[in-house]
Amino acid sequence: MLTCWVYRQKISESLDAGHALPRTLPNHLQSCRSCRDFYEAGLQINELLASGAGRERVSSPPFLQGKILTALNDSREGPHPGRIRLAWAATAFAVAAVLVGAWFLWHQPPLQPQPQPVVRSGQNPGQAAEWFAAAARLPSEDTLLEWGQKLDQPLETELKSVLHDARKALASLAQNFLPDELSPLP
Ligand SMILES: [Zn+2]
User: Fold this and answer.
1) Cα(51) to centroid of ligand 1, in Å?
2) pLDDT digit string (tens) for 83-106?
3) Where are the domains of the chain?
4) Mean pLDDT over residues 150-159, rounded?
5) What is the pTM of this model?
6) Which residues surround ligand 1, an ion (CB under 5 A)?
7) What is the CA radius of gyration of the chain?
8) Cα–ligand 1 centroid distance for 4 (angstroms)
9) How far is the CA of 88 from the centre of ligand 1 (A)?
């Protein structure tokens, strides 16, 4: 019968889920022996499975429970302690590196302004080019010594030298850039 097939589906669903039978089923079970047998067989299978499951239960290794609980507690409390220690170590290293760098910068001698050689305007283009090339490079020890000696010369000598150089520069400029008829020098 079709109604019996429908009722047996409902019996199977109820037994599998462990729920009570729908309200309409007990009436049918009283009147239909076939469905009542189906239901009783299902109940018996369920009881056998439940008792068998108890026998088949295998106890877990004693350490497993503790391990699982520890893992659960760790995940609840946030990052692993080892990871926290590593993060702290990295932070401490970065701070130490910054402090060491700052110490080195602090203890470096202040940059001294480098004495610049006075450009002798009377120098010929070859010498000037040489001077520019020398200025572009870092001065050697000898050059620094020479500059120091020049700077130590008495002011009067230096002024005379500057005036002399200025005259020579003017003469040189006039000679090189002015037409002959405008040149003040013979
Ligand atoms: Zn039936």
Assistant:
1) 29
2) 667 778 888 888 888 888 888 778
3) 2-55, 140-180
4) 72
5) 0.33
6) 4, 32, 35
7) 53
8) 4
9) 73
